[in-house]
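Table S2 (text version). Query chain:
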Amino acid sequence: MLDAAIVRQPHIVSARSNVRFVWDFIVIIFAVVNGVTLPLEIAFGDQFSNEPWYRVLDWITISVFILDVIAGFFTSYVNISSGDEIFGMRMIAINYITEGTFLIDIASTFPIDQLAVAFGAEQDGSVAQSLKIFGLLKIQRLRRISKIIGNMNQT
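Corresponding structure-token output:
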């Protein structure tokens, strides 16, 4: 009898599939875009980040990274010690949250400073200004490039 965590489930994407490879490529592209636009946003502040094209690009980028966090719960992983590909939802979730980069992914994905302003914090107030430091967590999106390449090497 096969272990339920190893048996292929239809709603789980294989870490070794072409679909996952294409998705990872898309995430890499948006991480590179983020790597170019983030220094400009830091250097020029509101002058740059209030441009309409940048705001659209930023929300598309945020959406891609949110979808990537969700995809992390529906993508198999390779057990390093056994070499088996694990397809069990529970095992995938436990691995992603404990062994993976879930907390960093969440912290770098959600625009905490923009959400505070949207929920009533004054843009020039101390709360919104204090939360702007969390915008620097976007730089953590760049580490996804090495994570993805590392996963490709494993699989």
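Notes on Table S2: The beta strands are 77-78, 85-86. The longest strand covers residues 77-78.
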